[in-house]
Each structure stands twice: as C-alpha cells, then as structure tokens.
Amino acid sequence: MISEGNSVRRAVLFFLILFLVVSPFSGAQSIEKPKTPSWFRDGTYLVYTMMMPTNPKKGEVNVIEVWPRLLPPQGIPKSIIEDLDNSSTVTLLVSGDMYLTIKIVNTTSDTAYVQIELELNNVSAKQGIIIPRLSLKKTLLLNLTEMLYYEEDGTPIGSPMFFVNPLHLPKEDDYIVVPAFLKKYGLISDRITIKNVSYTWMENRVLHTHYKDFMPPYLYVEGRGLYLVYNRQTGGSFDIVTQLVYDIDTGILITTGLCDITPELVSLGIVKVIALDRVNSRKLYKLIDEGKADKEWYAQGFNLYDTNVKLPDYGSGRSPSTPVKYFFVLSLVVLAMTALWTERRWKR
In this predicted model, what pLDDT tens digit does every residue of 68-84 receive, in sequence order? Predict the structure, then answer.
C-alpha cells in the first residue's frame, strides 16, 4: 500500500514538472502567436508535380473536372471558352506532366499575395482537340491575421492547404472551402470540412517524392464533403475527398492523396481531381511486388518537386530533433501521464 502511494506521488510530481516545463513555452506562444511559418517571406515558392511516363500505357490519363465560372480566362483557348456550359463541369483529360506552383509575394505585416499556377501538358477538353500546354493562373490575397484567402471583392475562400503553421494546425470541422465562395459561383455542395487530423499516417515508412525523401512522423489532414453537384440540370454529384500530408517541422505539404478541392485549386476552377503521379505509381507497384512497402512508400499525388524552403537534413536516417518534434513528443508524454493518473483513480 505504501509502495503504491509512493508511485502515485512520483507520478503526480513528474506531471507537475512537465507542466512547469511546458508552461513557459505556452505563455510565450500566447503572447506572440505567429500565424505564419518561420519560412514565410517574399519569394518563397513550392512546386508540386504529377508526372507521366515517357510512353504512357493505354488508360494512364489523369482527369480534372473544372467549373467554368471559376476558370481564369487567360490562357484558355477560344475553342474551349465558346462551348462552356456554366451549369456543369468540364472534363479535362491530361496525358502529360502537371506542375503546380505556389509563390508568396508582396508580404506586409497583415497581408500577402499568393501566386498560384497550374501547368497541364497534353490536355484534351473535347474530342479531336489537343492543347499541348494549358496554364491556369490566379493570385490570391492572404489575410495573415486570419490565415484566410480572400477574393478582391472580400469573399473568403478558405485557409491555405499547401502549407500550414506547425504551431497553428488545422482543426476538425474547419472549412476547407468557405460556403459563401461556393455559393457565389453557383456551386451546390455539402459542408466541405476537415474530418481528421493525425500523426499516424505511414508512421514507419520513408516517403519518396520527386524532390527528396521524408521521414516520419507526418502530419495528415483529411477533409470531406458528402456531395458537390457537377450538373445543375440533372442533379448529378460526386463526393469530395481531400487528403494532405505535411512535413511536421516546416508545415509545407509533402504530398496529396486524393485531392478533390483545396482553396488553391478551386480558385483555378478545379472541383475534382482523379489523378496519379504515374511515374511514382509504377515505382510503388514494383516496391509492393518486392515486399518492401512496409518500410518505404512513393507519393502518388501532387508531390513536392522543388522549393527554396530549407528542410531538415535526414542524412542520419532518422527524423531530426527539432523544437516542433520535441513538443510533439512531450505532448504524448503528458497524455500518457494523464491516462496513467486516470487509471489509478479508477483502481482506487
């Protein structure tokens, strides 16, 4: 009985020490609370890709559904614009590489502009017409206090999804795209919100991207919507699934899984993406056949291709000890101690 009492006292003492260690950090954060990541500045860029093999097989094609009212007019051939129907989506078949570039410009203490460009190669919008290169571009105003994209007329779009601040992570039930934005452009949908935030995605696997290899843990964010109407005349709809994987140290997106909608993509008119990085997919299938997929994985969505953000060095083969990881581990310890304390209370 005495031994058990001493154990409880030691557990309480340890918990109090942890509280004292964490409290100064929490207090400092409550004063400063920077909303942007430390690397966020003019000229920062992130480039993502989904690559196609040199000789794609039959059926190796990516599908993008676009909402005509949201398409940036520049760069769209007249042959496509003239036939656009604003009551339904237009299907783009892409048989070449895709590149998505995010660039930060004109930052102030309160706002920044984010340039977004999606380059599609070998695009077919209608039978018999091939567009060698199609570029969709948009510049969004980012309110740094709210970390929310806005249109020029003040319509909110949503929070950045291709980067997050590791100290201000997305939360469950946050909007991926704000309903007011969808309504403005005649899109009928369910609430498209974040449903899951976790650190257990591919927790034991090295993740290969075209830019570099990443080590776990990863931040995984998943958003869903039950439906988005793609044809207002027939009522036809599809469900929305967006899966995003981030580097836990910097908060930049490493890769997507399914990625139907983000504020960045929908601002270009994209409301559904059925696509894979076919080059990495072939590598992944080979990895699975060789029985090595329990240790490593190839990113198959929009995965990192280039950036000027300084990323952690994984040369040692282990995930580095950074402040973010330190407090992540510390939070797990606190949770474990809380569980232990609760269990002992129930036993008493």
Answer: 999 887 767 766 666 67
Contact between 202 and 219 under an 8 Å Cβ cutoff? The reply is no
**Number of neighbouring beta carbons within 10 Å of residue 52:** 22
Q: Is residue 21 part of a domain?
A: no
Q: Which domain holds residue 311?
A: 2-11+39-347
The candidate with the shortest Cα–Cα distance to 210, out of 293, 286, 281, is: 281
CA distance 96 to 4: 67
This prediction has a pTM of: 0.82
The helix or strand, by DSSP H or E, that contains position 144, with its residue range, turns out to be none
H helix intervals, 76-200: 78-81, 179-184
Asked whether residue 162 is domain-assigned, the answer is yes
Nearest CA to 119 out of 140, 149, 96 is that of: 96
Which backbone phi and psi does 248 adopt, to 5 degrees? -70, -25
Asked if residue 24 belongs to a domain, the reply is no
Distance CA(187)–CA(154), nearest Å, equals: 18
- Answer for the pair 117, 48: CB distance below 8 angstroms, yes or no: no
In the chain, which stretches have pLDDT less than 50? 1-3, 8-9, 11-14, 16-31, 316-324, 326-336, 338-339, 341-342
Residue 304 token pair = 């990192």
Whether 145 and 126 have beta carbons less than 8 Å apart is answered as: no
